[in-house]
Specification:
By secondary structure, the protein is of the alpha/beta class. It has 13 helices and 9 strands. Helix 10 crosses helix 11. InterPro entries: Glyco_trans_8, Glycosyltrans_8_dom-fam, Nucleotide-diphossugar_trans.
């Protein structure tokens, strides 16, 4: 009987071990599933992710937002980039949940169907309590305006990333912009506002801000305590070349969120004239800690004044054109809209239309 009891206890021990092993396997599978599922929630609607490390090394990731009311802008920008390079571009097209299917339809039912892309959902809940309502430029409060703050949360497998505003056209080879050198310890490169074209052109852009004074309210103690001279040259974050490793190491996103929340509490930014809400936190966080982009890769202010035009020769030399300001090239009045329209991709759904007298 003792032998029988020993055999029985051995059998029970084996069964317990098998059950424990089974539970361990189920737990591991559950963890792996959750990780994979979290990834699909973060990058909802994305294409197949099965790429080899070699493929990813050769890819140039370009992040661009496609907002509901101006989706045609993103599509024109994408078309201009894709048409002017032999490089392997991976477009991260970022939208809010209710626009994702429309973004996919526009790409897949137009000449853009050949591009390599992922559609990324941006959850505006991350901005809750961080944005101060501002009636002066309500379009600057759109959630997608802050996507540039959260690049590492959207892009995981790339070391270097290009972010572009949607109201740009690229005339050069995007590989050149991607090859911008970032100094050691710098998380990003921008265009200095002191690197703008000739002073003759600038003087005609009345009200243009190119110093920190135009973005930060120097009457506030919090701003004064930064010790940044109000005459310091600002930069424009509509074109960014970013190093994701440095960005994460320096906790740039957390720093930007801190300065968003401080603005909600103390109203620190001069948003009446400057780019305001998205630019100001970046000016503080990146002060003295950014590399510069070749000025020809960010010729901007084309949307500043419908009565101000650049010379045709100058525009031909430009590698990237940016219609920042109120006067967008798909609307009227605007300038140099012929350059933008040459890259326009008609909306297959017929929703987005050009608002020009001759259209």
């Amino acid at each position: 009987s003792s032998i029988l009891r020993k055999t029985l206890s051995d059998t029970i021990l084996v069964l317990i071990n098998q059950v424990l092993l089974f539970l361990l396997i189920v737990t591991i599978c559950g963890i792996l599933y959750k990780k994979a599922h979290r990834g699909t929630v973060l990058r909802n609607e994305t294409d197949d992710d099965s790429e080899t490390p070699e493929d990813m090394e050769d890819e140039i990731p370009v992040v661009i937002c496609a907002a509901a009311g101006r989706m045609g802008a993103a599509m024109a920008a994408i078309n201009s980039i894709y048409s002017n390079t032999e490089a392997n571009i991976l477009f991260y097209v970022v939208g809010l949940r209710n626009t994702l299917s429309r973004i996919r339809k526009w790409i897949e039912h137009s000449k853009l169907r050949e591009i390599n892309f992922k559609i990324v959902e941006f959850n505006p809940m991350v901005l809750k309590g961080k944005i101060r309502p501002d009636s002066a430029r309500p379009e600057l409060l759109q959630p997608l305006n802050f996507v540039r703050f959260y690049l590492p949360l959207l892009i995981h497998q790339h070391e270097k990333v290009i972010y572009l505003d949607d109201d740009v056209i690229v005339q050069g080879d995007i590989q050149e912009l991607y090859d911008t050198t970032l100094a050691l310890g710098h998380a990003a490169a921008f265009s200095d506002d002191c690197d703008l074209p000739s002073s003759q052109d600038i003087h005609r852009l009345v009200g243009l801000q190119n110093t920190y004074m135009g973005y930060l309210d120097y009457r506030k103690k919090t701003i004064k305590d930064l010790g940044i001279s109000p005459s310091t040259c600002s930069f424009n974050p509509g074109v960014i070349v970013a190093n994701m490793t440095e960005w994460k190491h320096q906790r740039i996103t957390k720093q930007l969120e801190k300065w968003m929340q401080k603005n909600v509490e103390e109203n620190l930014y001069s948003s009446s004239l400057g780019g305001g809400v998205a630019t100001s936190p970046m000016l503080i966080v990146f002060h003295g800690k950014y590399s510069t982009i070749n000025p020809l890769w960010h010729i901007r202010h084309l949307g500043w004044n419908p009565d101000t035009r650049y010379s045709e020769h100058f525009l031909q030399e430009a590698k990237l054109l940016h219609w920042n300001g109120r006067h967008k090239p798909w609307d009227f009045p605007s300038v140099h809209n012929d350059l933008w329209e040459s890259w326009f991709v008609p909306d297959p759904a017929g929703i987005f239309k050009l608002h020009h007298p001759n259209s």
